[in-house]
Design goal:
two-stranded parallel ribbon, 62 residues, FAD-binding protein, 29% helix, FAD/NAD-bd_sf
């Protein structure tokens, strides 16, 4: 079993946080794209981040 010890903590401020890398999370990220684009046209900068616990090469949704 892997030992996690003291993992690095990364704090970031985002407007929209999507948790998970499955189809629902990826679909959510895709679907909010037009809203983010519309906000940018109005001068509002929206940050979006998708986080997943799995390594990209091991994730089943990739």
């Amino acid at each position: 079993m892997a030992e996690f010890g003291n993992p690095d903590v990364v704090e970031e401020e985002v407007d929209i946080l999507i948790i998970g890398g499955g189809m629902a999370a990826c679909g959510t990220a895709y679907e909010i794209g037009p809203w983010v684009d519309a906000a940018k046209k109005e001068g509002v900068d929206i940050s979006v981040k998708l986080v997943d616990k799995a390594a990209m090469d091991r994730s089943g949704a990739v």
